[in-house]
Amino acid sequence: xxxxxxxxxxxxxxxxxxxxxxxxxxxxxxxxxxxxxxxxxxxxxxxxxxxxxxxxxxxxxxxxxxxxxxxxxxxxxxxxxxxxxxxxxxxxxxxxxxxxxxxxxxxxxxxxxxxxxxxxxxxxxxxxxxxxxxxxxxxxxxxxxxxxxxxxxxxxxxxxxxxxxxxxxxxxxxxxxxxxxxxxxxxxxxxxxxxxxxxxxxxxxxxxxxxxxxxxxxxxxxxxxxxxxxxxxxxxxxxxxxxxxxxxxxxxxxxxxxxxxxxxxxxxxxxxxxxxxxxxxxxxxxxxxxxxxxxxxxxxxxxxxxxxxxxxxxxxxxxxxxxxxxxxxxxxxxxxxxxxxxxxxxxxxxxxxxxxxxxxxxxxxxxxxxxxxxxxxxxxxxxxxxxxxxxxxxxxxxxxxxxxxxxxxxxxxxxxxxxxxxxxxxxxxxxxxxxxxxxxxxxxxxxxxxxxxxxxxxxxxxxxxxxxxxxxxxxxxxxxxxxxxxxxxxxxxxxxxxxxxxxx
Length: 504
Known about the structure:
This protein is α+β, with helices and mostly antiparallel strands. It contains 13 helices and 19 strands.
């Protein structure tokens, strides 16, 4: 088993966007807590928590939107401090990096001495951190989070160290929820299950999680022999002065790299990105690559370039980039994946290549796909995700009091048109603070054309984000039918009516 030292910055990425670790601050992405400071954690705020739940636990929470470029740029300082002690620094993600521990531990006088030395180097660079050493990356990360600054788990003791932890640390919420309903509550309970039964019941991902719970490597050891050079390289003439051009090239190179690995039945679990600059500087960094898509590789190239960017400029790179190389640092046999029948996979691949070409012309947000999420209104139940991106992992969940009942509208206007809803006397229908309707609606006026109301139901009130004055919304929804055979979902907000959906 490989001995690994993991360095974890607990207040990352809160530090990267200027949230003081001494304040009750948090960073959010897609309405959920992406990271929080120690002060916020003391109040019960946790990563993955819905923002409104976090603000209920900690009313003085200071909230910042996530800035991945700033995270990558600032974490380069941490990686450089660790690299001064050992050259084999592997960045798992901004805020978390790892190094092999055996060699450096022998050089620096033992594992505990190495752990303290690395931790002190990062603290001197200006960042709070924890450092832990254990068998394997998963156990080492939890060791870095344990105690006051991390611990050293004795060799062979990873399973006993992991046993008391809850299943949530596996970062597989669906699997954790299913196991909890089956009576399995801790990693120790999960590790005690027979491996064959776990693989048969929960599939490959469940088997990987089972190996992690037992303190083993996620993949069985399977050394491969020497292979041909599978690196992907590209040059820039003239030098690329904008990071976006390099990122698009990185995405293409990552696709070529994946194709070359797949042809040899291999997959990459650790990737080295080498960027050469016009001033002669070469920036190298190792990234954990297991399961990353071509787009995820391009994102890591963006983080790496952000460390070589002029301050205040979001796109330029000092001197320009002259070369980019993606080098598979560690390859293992690919265990394969289940493809669709009757040639569907080849069609999907052609569509993906066409989407890549369109994105290269129009930008990353140029082509998107809809993803269903939770929400009250029909327009809130779909988010648009750029093609190539994974669906958001932190989707909001229910229940949603006041949610519109089925069936869903057939059409949801991008810009809801304003309408007038009046009663029999010609007065505008209003909804009071107690959700009382002033009078039964009689006529709907859309673009000046009246239509008689033949049926209506409502209101469904929704008082959202009442704790945040800047983002608070109070709405009421109605379903109405008109004498021309149309059916609408209407909403009133701030005394104004608009069409939120049209039924087919």
